[in-house]
Queue: 3 jobs
Job 1
Amino acid sequence: MNFNVLSFLFDNLVASGVIGGYVAISLIVVNVLTHVYKESLTKRVQSSPNRYHPIIGALMGAIPGCGGTIAASIMYKNDKLSFGGLLAAFITTLGEGSFVLLGASTEPSVPIDSNLKAFAIVNIVGLCVGIIVGSLSDALKLKGFNFDINYKMTVKPADIGTGSRSSFEKIIEQAGLYLILGTTLFLTPGSIMALWGGGIASIEEVTVVMCLVMTVASIIYFVVQTFFLNGHCHSVSHQNIRSVLVESVMDITMVISYVFVGLVVANFVIDILVGQEQFMSWMNESELLVVVLAALIGVTPGCGGMIAVAVAYVTIPNFPIAALISAGIATSGDGIFPLFASNKKEALTISVLSLAIAIIVGYGVLFIEM
């Protein structure tokens, strides 16, 4: 079999850009709305009785992205949210992996609405499990393995747009901001029309080029920010909409970079190394193992693991929804980092509990499907 490396990479770059269009639109809208309503949300939580905290925490976790869990971690540290509410938020969240499912599909045979349906199912299951487990946790007065409650955070949250920065950093930030937002603006009409199975035929070739630009620019920006400028971090507070957009661009480029790597690995293994028929045979025979592996991948700190599983779901035919649910419950997203900074053992407690619950629920969904 002839394997054209350049053609293979080109196809995956374009496919990542297609997903990136949905990711960018969803992420920007969610981040802006979260910024606008953050103070109102915090006040409502503070005024609510503790018995409602698991419900509030689960709803915060259901917000696409990591903003909800980051806010929950800070509120818990300041004694504004119960441990059950915090646990519910982490059980419910899909992190940045949620944006991969929001209308994203690289397979013509997979309707866009099927991924939206999966997004809804995973969130509903996560909400129910999060509220139940969080309520039980508060009823049993579980607070994790608490230690040194006066421990101070040594990692200061970065407020984007402040402090002394080099001209190079400012140029990279500015270029990335305008390039990614400009490309997103161009892709928005086609992405919206694709939700109903349509498209814009007159600019189809230009759209392919823009998808390619989106992926390449995202990978370059993500690599430079992460490995050279150490700029890929979440800010606890934002001064204005521009700082929200700057962080949104950071998140967009991170997700698209992970999506590209995931697509390359998945498509290479399935189409080149193993073959689709053999892989499908393995998938059907090893669903129990897939659920456990998905949970183990999802529980890794940050959003990378959940993004990888979400990419697998939208890429691999018949990927079990139980495995996606398992990863969704296990993942903690970037919200785990501020919790690790203030109380490592409680963060570890949440990770272990989420992993165990994820496997149990995943197997339960598999049993129901049989």
Note: The chain has a mean pLDDT of 81.
Job 2
Amino acid sequence: MELFDVYPLFDIAIERGQGCRVWDDKGQEYLDLYGGHAVISVGHAHPHYVEAIASQVGKLGFYSNSVQNPLQKELAHGLGKACGYEDYQLFLINSGAEANENALKLASFYNGRTRVLSAEKAFHGRTSLAVEATANPKIIAPINANGHVTYLPINDIDAWKAEIEKDDVCAVIIECIQGVGGIRMIEADFLQQLKAACEAHNTVLICDEIQCGYGRSGKFFAHQWLGVKPDMITVAKGICNGYPMGGVLISPKFKPIYGQLGTTFGGNHLGCAGAIAVLDIIESEGLVENANKVGTYLIDTLTAEMKAGNLPHVIDVRGRGLMIGIELDIPYKEPRTRLIQEEHCFTGCAGTNTIRLLPPLCLTMEEADEFIAKFKKVLA
């Protein structure tokens, strides 16, 4: 059997990592400012995380949600304390797409509606309703194109209010920093007015924090920069530092009903042990604060270098914390490829012209300077 060939791959096989660095099977070291799509939150192979995973799998990796799992409650309490949502409820699943599917499903159970508002350039996943809420027709199959979703421009509050005021919108789902869309920032005034409109018309507000959450923006959640408390928050990626896991944080106004939501693997013992370890590390090492400090330094330094003319082809630097977009006036392909092949540095990308930085939250100032030096070389 061969693999179903859907991924355009670099000819590199990564076999180990440590902190913000990875090594390939030939022993070549790389600086990792990608974190495997923002998944690596506390750094590769963190010893506390490794010990937690190894210890748990040596006892019990999985049992079903038909029995008590105290690790789930420990994770829920720890997450509530870390993010400031101690009065919310947690439903655990396996991925970001599943988190968004379940949030939208619960919203529809709540108000009985079927329409969803999503943003232009949004990305919410590749399954069923999550992919329909993703503004990319290339990945929406005919079976997914069911007419549930209206796409609107970000920060255009009049356009969103006009739809919400029709009183038939089930949910609004929005990334407070668009990731795949190119690190596009939601404005505070827009989100605050959007929340007010949702409340006035019994529409559920879902903040997709799968990429921009879990400390990446320099607060635990990106929406916490914007002065809004959503009805539901979806998380994945950084929650378990590479082990597949997702979750929905659910407002107290939603009342659980037995059997309404469910999952086979979600909230399993191994994933919970890893996720608890991630929260331990985030707190003990001050990684949210580090993301804010190092991210601000990176954005400010890159912006100053751009304005001084020291970064040819760079026309914009935007983002918050360690979620940064560097927009070029040329396609990203050549500089990104040269970063990997010549400077041994991984980055992400968005659209056709944006380099995306999504490093582990433990990135140091020295590693930030190292990236800037490498980036200058490939643009020179």
Note: The domain at 14-20+29-42+286-379 is CATH 3.90.1150.10 (Aspartate Aminotransferase, domain 1).
Job 3
Amino acid sequence: MNGPVEKTHLKALSRAGLEAWVTGLGEKPYRARQLWKWLVPRGASSFSEMTDLSREFRARLEAAAEIRSLRRVSADRSGDGGAVKFLWECPDGNRIESVFIPEADRRTVCVSSQVGCGLGCAFCATGRLGFSRNLESWEILDQVIGVRRETGEAPTNIVVMGMGEPFLNYDAVMDALAVMNDPEGLAIGHRKITVSTSGVIPGLLRFTEENRPYKLAVSLNAVTDVLRTRIMPVNRKYPIAALMEAVRAYSRAPGRRVTFEYVLFAGLNDSREDAARLLALLRGLPCKVNLIPYNPAVGGFQRPDEGRVERFLEWIKPLRSPVIVRWSRGADIGAACGQLAGSGPERVDPPPMESEAPDISLRSDLARRRGARSQEAAVSRKASSAETGGAGSRKPGKRTGGGAS
């Protein structure tokens, strides 16, 4: 007896692959374009939603194909500024997290690239999980589609800074970003997309050689090999000198400016000597620095107080590059930098549903916060214009928020 026919997983197909599959059914190519619009820009999770397709064609799709989606397990809202952490379940039961960070001038989604992470950074909750598997490109993309569906807000910025090391899942990450950037996909500008690496040099070199248009962020966090190896074991294979050589190669092309992420740990990497070494390391390099006071995730590390952070900021002022102190949002729900772990205490899974409805209370709360942010932004622009006689500009200094910009 023949078993059931395996259905085609449509979200796993590229736009060209989808067109080839549709024409293989004997349909016209324009049907593929209709289907693509439903799957990506509109984020449909069932064929019944595709109301501009004939019933006959939808019936054929039901028989031959399927639409897999990440299942929203929970959505935790932060009380400190509107960040929302989403816990998703993959079709195989693995769980990942992503974060939505709304601000006055942007709506950022921080996405994961792997289930867990094998790099074992000592201060990172994800590193404690170990590595399970790489995410497929559609699972990376579906985090953004899911956030848009749940919040009712279209993301403007993407940061690949969630669970996992993007350059160890290079092809899937780049395939997903291509769809996010595609004008017929999610239409997010390439300068609004940032890929963050812990310093995996082969991936960085490939990113450079392929002239990828997205922004690059490097998680540095220490300025000596001894300390960096202690807190980031990847440094054993890719030490600071080799990493900086690769970064400088990336920066040689016009218009490229790398963002360095430097997590500040009390009494560990926040001394005047550390600041002097950081200045020497970055001098002459077109860059930006995000100083991130440590977000408690694992034991053994402490966040420096605000005075210590301000002193470190003063010490690196001679760098003459933009330096931002990023007080990450979402720490109260485990959604800040270094806190994602793919699970959480006291979570209750909703019952499985064929097509899970968005959380209406979440949408209402975000809409209220969005109105407040718009008012704050308007007041800020008015005040800035009055002070400068024209359009205001963002200056280096403090900033609260999520992803790199």
Note: Residues 243 and 259 are 14 Å apart (CA to CA).
